[in-house]
Amino acid sequence: NRGDRVGIVGPNGAGKSSLLRMIHGELAPDKGSVTTDASIGYLSQVPDFNEPVIVYVDRMTGGLISLETELQELYGQMGDPAVDKRVGKLQADFEERGGWDVQPRIEEIFSKLGVPEDAMDKTFGEFSGGQQSRILLAGQLVQEPDILLLDEPTNNLDSEGLEWLEKYLSTYQGAVAVVSHDREFLDNTATRIIEIDGSGGEPDYYEGNYTDYRIEKAARRERLASILEAQRKKETQMQDAVTRRRALSDSIHDASGGSSFHRAKAAKIDRSRIAMEGRLGRMQRDASWRVEREERDSLPLELRGESQRGRRILAASALRLGYGIEAPPVIDDATFTVYGQDRIAIVGNNGAGKTTLLSAMAGNEDLIQSGSVEAYADFSYLTQAETQKKAKESNANILDWFRESVGGIYEEEAMGMLVSLGFNKHRLRQPVKNLSPGEVTKLTLLGMTFSGKELLMLDEPTNHLDFDALDVIEETLGEFKGTLITVSHDRRFLGRLACNRAFEVYDGRVAVSD
To answer: In what order do the strands lie in the sheet with 501-506?
Structure first.
């Protein structure tokens, strides 16, 4: 309904994005239909890399940018009656559709979301994955459709962009349906939650925000557990009664000596047993008989690396970072030391250089214009863009890709770990390229659990992960005895990690706080 703020949640691969695509009309349902006469905007996760940004934004405005460009050209040709007539017609159309408000709206939204100022002069492929996400989101907000479908809109947004988006959606006149794994965002925006559990059954519906959903879900599980316990007791009692009747009938037959009286008595007991077996079978088949849903095992994310507290793990001296030796520096004169068992959050606005800093710390020498950075421990480095790209370009299946990334692991052990993470046992031979972004991240994090590395460097590790995986990862990282450095915009994730230090990146500098 108009004004609804619906959060769609569920495990990775359950079909949340597919549902949005069906509502938008990109996918046809196998059964049923989607009907609306409203305009629909859809934020997808992946753009057309070759499409110019200005073409995309123009399409979102219904061609108003092109129309304004044409008008500007025609203004210089006025005086010709034919031109004057066309200008009058185009200008009336432009004004009626609110054309004069479009450019200021584009500039405001681009600014608040941290879209680069030169975005309109480039194609999507010239930007990082995070920048692409912000441009895609900006285009949808410029469009202002009646129904706004958002697929992971908070990925790669900084705190300022998140706060602005939450405030924007709170006053949005249309309806919003959002797929998100950002719990804080759903708490601040959603008024209803739809859960798709991946079982193929009907969704579950909850009123309220994310916290309300978790509370109500726990209450429903308790009620279901009580119902199931009563059902199990009743089933056991009936099965015991059937067993007793069968045993009694058999004993009467054995002791009867063929008398008609005993045969009749045994037959009566048999009829009673058969009738009870029928009632038991009908009860179990009846729609009201509650069947407990299969719960996936939580993944024991055993991060085996351990650091000696206070030992020097990584050090940077007078570090100057940029994209090319002659290019202006993104970060200048950064000097710091990372010690054993540090938990460091790299924070800052979009475009400040957080990912650039983490990449240099992970050994990307192409970014170093001067100074030095050196790691004194083995490390694992998770970067979303490269991880997703590697998976999409791989010809390996899930199981082989995972075993190769881990190294030295038996197939049976690999299968057990993947299934415990929530991968379907029957899908492990399918290509990695067919996985959802969240499943790719899961697969990568699972590989890191066996690395035994002392230092973990994570760039937006929570992007695309479902809530079950988030709970397990947060709990396990809380017990990790190694050293952790992370870039993340997930406020709840950073809170649960209990970081003891922060590297704030701003104005080309790195400020270290303990």
So the answer is: 379-383, 455-459, 483-487, 343-347, 501-506, 509-513
Q: What angle do CA 7, 11, 12 make, to 5 degrees?
A: 105
Distance CA 96, CA 68 (A): 13
Contact 460, 508 (CB under 8 A): no
In SS3 terms, 167-187 reads as HHHHCCCCEEEEECCCHHHHH
**What single DSSP character describes residue 78?**
B
CA angle at 423 for the pair 421 and 425, rounded to the nearest 5°: 120
Rounded Cα distance, 484 and 470, in Å:
16
Under the banding of pLDDT at 50, 70 and 90, the label for residue 257 is low
Per DSSP, the residues of 336-399 read EEEETT-EEEEE--TTSSHHHHHHHHTT-GGGEEEEEEEE-S-EEEEEHHHHHHHHHH--SBHH
Tokens read off for 128: 């990082």
CA 23 to chain CA centroid, Å, is: 19
pLDDT over threshold 60, residue 297: no
The string of pLDDT tens digits covering residues 475-491 is 778 878 889 999 998 88
Distance, in Å, from the CA atom of 422 to the CA atom of 440, rounded to the nearest integer, reads: 12
Tokens for 426, please give them: 């029957």
Q: pLDDT (tens digit, 9 = 90+) per residue, 264-273? A: 887 888 888 8
Say if CB 121 and CB 135 are below 8 A apart: no
